[in-house]
Amino acid sequence: MHTSLNKKALLVALVVTLACVVISFYGSRKLQNFDPALIAYLFGTLFALFGGIYRYCVWLQRPPTWMYFRRTWQFVFSGSFFVHLYYLAADSVKNLLFQRFIYPRGKKRWIAHFLLATGCMAAFAITIPLTLGWINFTLDPATALDPGTTRLYYANFFGFQVMSFKLGSVMAFLIFHALTWCSWLVIAGAVFFMVRRMTNAGLIATQTFEGDLLPLILLIIISVTGLGLNYSYAFMKGMAYDFMAVTHAISVILFLVWIPFGKFFHIIQRPAQIGAHIYKKEGMKRGMAVCPHTGQAFATQLHVDDLKTVTQQLGFDFTLENGSSHLDFSPEGKRSLLAKAHLQARQEGGNLFG
Amino acid sequence: MEVTAYKTDMEFFVDMQRCIGCKACEMACAECETNGHQSMIHVNYVERAVSIQTTVQVCMHCDDPVCARVCPADAISKDDFGVVHSANTARCIGCSNCVMACPFGVPIKEEKYDMMMKCNMCYDRTSAGKKPMCATVCPSQALFYGTREEISRMRPNSTPVNTFIFGQQTVTTKVNIMMPKGSTHLKVH
């Protein structure tokens, strides 16, 4: 196993993390808007950022990943830039925001994943800026001192006022309980997947506890204790609040620290799918590769050529004696070639069976 | 995957000259739970214009799997038993690198799922000490799963070979192909 420190990745991760610290310091108006109660979450978030960027950079340096990364941006920035940008945006909405590719794998699976992903992404969008002090809420001083009026609340982003709402309004209820809604979405999705993982024979055979079940358990603990924080003071007179707060903090920090290493890294990897789509689309424009055996187009010529480079970089050499490559053949062509070679060997052996 | 009854003395032996194209293995393959009841085995005519010969192809489970190495998303893994598993559904980005790079033409890109799928030697069965579905139904024993002793008794004039030469590249696999006695490798081109 490769365990040495990757200097390039370390440098990028350090720079990005430091930049985040600087932005957060000034974004929270020199920590004026920073909530000290969230200090543990802050370190968890910074570690997740550092670890996430580090692993992403290590991942990008693998030859096949780098090929896709390089090609994607090369295509986006060449020729019809805005057409590509539109495709990038549309495909991101379809496949990242709505995870449309899961729908054909199972309608219920898609609904569950959509709930889970939406709950997680919305919770990220709320908690990360809150933790870093980018968002804060203030009470309007004028209405706060006047008992006759409804108090006005401001939401500020980087210290700039972006919206206001009245306390006690429907808007206030929705905003203050935003994480509650997220928790219910996550619980619904995670419970569905938990049941699926405990009943589907194929999954039972191949899943691992730490790779597949623990992430779901962790998400359920986070959501249940998160809900508990709210329900403890809303309905239970503050009972078990400390327990909820500590368990919630521990589980969330574990989750954050684990993002770069475990199953949650797929959230960060998934946009590569958009790159693969652009790669295929652009490759088709450039022309298809035809299999010498079947005589039919089977992949883009760009893909076949790039794979020859990537396999060479990885230490494989499928070059044939005539200068062409085994990779020039389609999957069906390769299977037939193997059968033909086998037949020839059997014929030379003097017996078709043995 | 942690607690298994995988039998390490059992091996896969393929002899495509014995394939009669009945496609019983295709039907059986669709019984595999790890494929989500989708057939992953390949049965195709070798050269339909001149011959009725069919060939059957399961995943050969390479010692150094090219599919896993060319995967940009680290979605394919090989376990301690040497079984190369189908793509991790959360990671696979459906790029088809594995489909195009596999020297045996095994992985399948399921366009509707935007994901690769392939034979994982019926891991739900083999991890429980059972035989892969295809090998249990093959009437001509083109696909055979058992011990080395069994196969040498059944095929005294053949030798199992797991070394394949594709031009400059030598590939060794977990799955064997039955070759004339004394053979050490199969040169494909």
From TrEMBL, chain A:
Lineage, opening ranks: Bacteria, Pseudomonadati, Bacteroidota, Chitinophagia, Chitinophagales
Superkingdom, taxonomy of origin: Bacteria
Statement: the UniProt record of this protein carries the keyword Membrane: yes
UniProt xrefs under InterPro entries: NarG-like_sf (IPR036197)
Keywords: Membrane, Transmembrane, Transmembrane helix
PROSITE patterns: PROKAR_LIPOPROTEIN
Gene3D superfamilies per the UniProt record, alphabetical: Transmembrane di-heme cytochromes, Chain C
Protein name as it appears in the record: Uncharacterized protein
Entry keyword Acetylation: no
Transmembrane regions listed in the UniProt entry: 6-26, 38-56, 110-135, 170-193, 213-233, 239-261
UniProtKB/TrEMBL annotation, chain B:
A molecular-function term among this protein's GO annotations: metal ion binding
Pfam families: Fer4_11
Keyword tags: 4Fe-4S, Electron transport, Iron, Iron-sulfur, Metal-binding, Repeat, Transport
UniProt xrefs under PROSITE patterns: 4FE4S_FER_1, 4FE4S_FER_2
InterPro entries: 4Fe4S_Fe-S-bd, 4Fe4S_Fe_S_CS, ET_IronSulfur_Cluster-Binding
Domain 4Fe-4S ferredoxin-type: 10-29, 48-81, 83-112
CDD domains cross-referenced by the UniProt entry: DMSOR_beta_like
Gene3D superfamilies from the UniProt entry: 3.30.70.20
Superkingdom as given in the UniProt entry: Bacteria
This protein's name: Dimethylsulfoxide reductase, chain B
